[in-house]
């Protein structure tokens, strides 16, 4: 980041105060995990836990694999806050900075922190899962970290977070709908509430990128093409439970097969942002900017072709059953 680019984000401090922080909710107006969980101080606690366990029996193992994968992804929150604090020009310089970028990072983290807490506690109460294996997977994932390939650039960083928030919104939304189909309306409400948070956060990050296209379209366009060439790295890419060295791919295959998150979703997200940011209509770009624009505008079609090949391959391949330690090594089709 050149000094000139750093000055852009310093200049945008006031804009972020008025246009980004407004997407946050006050603590007193926010939901908390306990709003959805049995009250351990109540005489009805045991009965409420029994109700959760009874409803959980209607959820298939393949659904649990996807839900646990989503939950573990949420639990790796320390990695994501570290990522945001690695971005030049927008990081929290002191740990308690009152600059708008720093306040966003801390408050976003606080809101996201509830997601893993709630899912973890709810899934524990079902009695259907090997919680120690899940806890080990979380431990491994946070220890491993991840490389978003943003190179400490807020341009790349905010593009990445826009895509990732929309992806989690879609994924949690799909688990909400599936939970309702299988008869667990409480779990459906939990996943839907988390999805709504992800959507609100997506709107904030999307607005930042929209502003960057307005004030520095060339760098933003080149950054978008750079991030798309690298392909958005999933936060749980280094998933490991101490047993399965290919756990992320197996989890992703289940999510693809039952429709929690698919290649089609990835293409839809790209098309959504191309339209949302008006990428194809931006003018006045340099040669590098125009080349980047041409690349990203043609990428959606290539992703669609990849989706078609994936579907054909999935339809022709022999089914394979894989054990997942999260569900006591019961086997699920991948």
TrEMBL record:
Subcellular location, record wording: Plastid, Chloroplast
Stretches assigned to coiled coil: none
Source taxon at top rank: Eukaryota
Keyword entries, A-Z: Chloroplast, Fatty acid biosynthesis, Fatty acid metabolism, Iron, Lipid biosynthesis, Lipid metabolism, Metal-binding, Oxidoreductase, Plastid, Transit peptide
Cofactor: Fe(2+); Fe cation
Primary residence: plastid
Entry protein name: Acyl-[acyl-carrier-protein] desaturase
Source species of the chain: Dioscorea zingiberensis
